[in-house]
Amino acid sequence: MPDMSMQSHIHFPFMKMHGLGNDFVVVDARAQDLQITPALAKGIAHRQFGVGFDQLALIEQGAGDAHLTFYNADGSTSGACGNATRCIARHLRDESGKDALHLSTDRGDLFACDAGDGLTSVNMGQPQLDWQDIPLAEAMDTLELPVEGAPTATGMGNPHCTFFVENADLVPLAEFGPRYEHHPLYPARTNVQGAHLVGPDHIRMRVWERGVGVTLASGSSSCATAVAAARKGLTGRKVQIDLDGGSLWIDWRADGVWMTGPTMHVFSGSFTRAFLESL
Question: Are residues 105 and 200 in the same domain?
């Protein structure tokens, strides 16, 4: 249960946002001391007893415009969440009027900018391609893992396992995802993607997120899939990725992997004291 002795008088606001249906609860702690515990995150994530989210993002003061911390629906933390970063960047841009933002995360420093036409871009940094950085359990070639289907391992501040298949729409993600999320090769678990080529530099991808489950979209998974496709020679470094919730555009440049797409701030609200005390 959260310690309410110091927080009973505090207004505990939140924002509900999504990027292509990949949905988030965003808590702004820059102006007041709002603490998130794993139990609190898990309670808020429940789609019947709480608000529901794929990730919760906490905005705090940072060296740049803000520092972001991410929680999965099971209460675990994640070093990166690309779509949430884009949503928050859009919010901070609207708030400050800045066209470019510097955000810090456990992944490192990320830079975001307005891409025009209501789209927001974020540089998710360089992909992690060495086995120990992803991390994997032992030394191996990350381009083709010794697993049926020869998936590619990529780190984007969180681990990824990308399978290129004949038809991503036929992958039974509810069974396929957890089987590989908990694979012994991934000591920190992994996000799992099934993808196929639609055309030149055009990919269809579906995702199982570590600590969450099937999601309509995933920014870091899209970046990892684009990197894997380029490394395999299936595409160039600039691709369109079609997810269940819509499309993202990924560009693996010299300075990092840029991701561009739409965002939505759905509503704002606040948690009741009764709800917080129930967790």
Answer: no
